[in-house]
Design a protein that fits this description.
- This protein is an alpha+beta fold.
- Helix content is 29%, strand content 43%.
- It has a 7-stranded antiparallel β-sheet.
- The mean pLDDT is 93.
């Protein structure tokens, strides 16, 4: 079943060039720093697998995995996440656009329920907050 009807789109302008933002999303050492993740493995190519263990506030460790379905360097990542009980991956798209020395990033997803959308949108905002802080410190 394809998810329909419960979308979110978040757009932010990051104070870093697109190549730096791309590296933050695609290099395991950088991704782990800003995404609060450990044991990060990224095979950034169409069909390539990724996995990590997210460490959420309070110390709970959440193993995550999936694969990339689309990769266009410095422009687009479509990241699929495996969800227990589902055959299809849950997809998130990250679109990047250079804007001078800045990067406009747009995260979007379509989910199966309003509750899933709200949870995913919250998590994506947390990711972008971490990415913004990481880029500001580098």
């Amino acid at each position: 079943m394809t998810a329909t009807g419960f979308d979110y789109v978040i757009t932010r302008t990051l104070e870093a060039p697109v190549e730096q933002v791309w590296a933050a999303w695609t290099r395991a050492d950088q991704y782990g720093q800003w995404a609060s993740a450990e044991e990060v493995v990224l095979d950034v190519r169409p069909g390539g697998a990724w996995s990590s263990v997210m460490v959420i506030p309070g110390g709970t460790r959440v193993p995550l995995s999936g694969r990339y379905t689309e990769v266009v360097e410095n422009k687009r990542l479509v990241i699929g996440m495996s969800v227990p009980g589902r055959e299809e991956l849950v997809l998130m798209t990250a679109d990047l656009a250079a804007d001078g020395d800045h990067t406009r990033i747009t995260l979007s997803q379509t989910l199966e329920s309003a509750e899933e959308r709200d949870q995913s949108e919250y998590g994506s905002n947390m990711l972008l907050d971490g990415l913004t802080a990481f880029l500001a410190a580098t």
